[in-house]
Design brief:
mainly alpha, 5 helices
Length: 182
């Protein structure tokens, strides 16, 4: 995962500050700033890894749903030649092949898959009259499930940020723990 590299870089940067830069500082202000920077880097490293894992899970869910949409659209022979269907099949096929062919940063992949998911929603809305009702219902339920996962992830991020902000404002020791532990 690309963000694991980010985690390692943050940890190594903190170690370099602590082992190389701090011992060579003489001024109190410079020392305080260097210690603060190393602390921030050490705090961010596990948060980046946790976020990466959550985004990876989101991406897996989106890939699965987009694959199901693609499969349904390919099976519907009655829609062959329909410009909306053909365009969506081409877009989803390209997106899913790209994801498999080249490892991407989890955030870039997440953004790209969300764009494809939105295009699928719009395309399916345009094809509502042409697809069986039970097929549409099933696809919509699966898409809702993926969107719910994203909303839940976003709410957890917001709640974590608020808890960290409140802890920092109140001056409690809670600010030392990663957000995901609260």
């Amino acid at each position: 995962m690309a963000n694991s590299i980010t985690k390692v870089m943050l940890e190594r940067s903190a170690a370099t500050i602590e082992q190389v830069i701090i011992p060579n500082l003489t001024g109190a202000f410079a020392l305080e700033q260097a210690v603060s920077m190393a602390t921030v880097l050490r705090f961010l490293a596990p948060v980046v890894e946790i976020e990466s894992q959550e985004l990876y899970a989101e991406n897996e869910g989106m890939r699965e749903v987009l694959g199901k949409v693609l499969s349904v659209l390919r099976k519907e022979k009655a829609l062959s030649g329909n410009a909306v269907r053909d365009g969506l099949v081409k877009r989803l096929d390209s997106e899913l092949k790209k994801v498999r062919a080249e490892p991407q940063d989890v955030r870039v992949e997440n953004h790209s898959l969300k764009r494809a998911l939105m295009e699928s929603i719009n395309g399916l809305d345009a094809l509502t009259e042409d697809l069986p009702a039970e097929t549409m219902s099933s696809l919509r339920q699966q898409i809702r499930s993926v969107l719910r996962q994203q909303v839940d992830h976003g709410m957890a991020d917001a709640a974590g940020w608020m808890a960290a902000h409140m802890a920092a404002r109140l001056g409690s020791g809670m600010a030392e723990f990663p957000v995901s532990m609260w």
